[in-house]
């Protein structure tokens, strides 16, 4: 997967490398995400900008930690031929710095670790996973997140341990 990363209103850091590592880990546990034809844009921005996007596209008048905007149906994601055709836009992800930082502090974890988790979470949404559909789908998505984070040496965000 190719990433197009735009960073605005985030502190200094190697956020691009973190996003690349998180995407690779997501591809390890959800192989459809490793398709080299996919292009995903990741915007690391402010709460104010994510608030605007959430209000405009989700009709929710508040900031949130991560937004995902899939461009393809799950069936199309899974069946896209990796060797034949032009690049395909998988979707867009936007992360809000202030919310990410507050959540990381509340959990007692590094902002970078929480950011990696949220990028993986967003990518799984772009691949068609949806934890809001059912408890079964939520458990499946959570398990994929935990496995991907373990590839990065990051503990289970739901229990605080490395699986």
Automatic annotation (TrEMBL):
Gene3D superfamilies xref list: Metalloproteases ('zincins'), catalytic domain
Binding site for Zn(2+): 121, 125, 131
Documented EC number(s): 3.1.-.-
Gene Ontology cellular-component annotations: cytoplasm
Keywords, comma-separated and alphabetical: Cytoplasm, Endonuclease, Hydrolase, Metal-binding, Nuclease, Ribosome biogenesis, rRNA processing, Zinc
Cofactor binding notes: Binds 1 zinc ion.
GO biological process, one term: rRNA processing
Compartmental location: Cytoplasm
Cofactor: Zn(2+)
Example of a GO MF term: metalloendopeptidase activity
A family per Pfam: YbeY
Family recorded in the similarity comment: Belongs to the endoribonuclease YbeY family.
Role description: Single strand-specific metallo-endoribonuclease involved in late-stage 70S ribosome quality control and in maturation of the 3' terminus of the 16S rRNA.
Protein name, per record: Endoribonuclease YbeY
